[in-house]
Amino acid sequence: MTTPAAALRVEGLSVAYGGVHAVRSLGFTVEPAQCVGIIGANGAGKTSTLKALMGQAPRTGGTIRLGDTDLTRVPAHRKVRHGIGYVPEGRHVFSGLPVEQNLLLGAVTRRWDTTTRARLREQYELFPVLGEMKDRPAGALSGGQQQMLAIGRALMSKPRLLLLDEPSMGLSPKLVGEILTVLRRLREEEALSMVLVEQNAALTFGVADHCLVMENGEVAMEGPSARLGNDPQVRRVYLGL
Fold it and tell me: 59 by DSSP, 3-state: which?
């Protein structure tokens, strides 16, 4: 019996900006329908890792495979076509465009057909407030609503793998709870694989099955979220708890 390919396999990933090494020989695997969390202090290399996976950071080594496909040298716009959705740090919505047009831009790699229309309806079901405000400029939304829009936009391409960079940044505890609920629902209902970069430990351990703790561009610790979340060293040294 053939073993299914991992959703994502990263080996020896390195990133450097000039002479500064942001990520050093990083390796990890995301299984189908699994969420891997990446936590650590500012400057640990978390965001650089996601940008390198998307082809937006200067990778100096390593390989990136999505399923059976080698995406190491594939440019960012083509990675979306292969099934990667990306929610960047800071949301980066198109503030002058209506909410619905922002969502439709997430489906630019797909044909406009009944499937795409259904996908749009799914985002409004997932985030009802977006349906209520679909004709308003995205810039008129609150920070939490813009985060919902950024996630919905990434989901419009129906990705196999979703990369999320600090989705809880600047949000109230109530909104963080809502984002947590949505991410859990996506895993359960769509079997969506995820890589979640976060400084919010509660959110990370609440969603991720497995976590990497990064320090100075390298993995300092890793293991099941249930174990790391209760590890006194992780809580004290890396999370400041």
Answer: strand
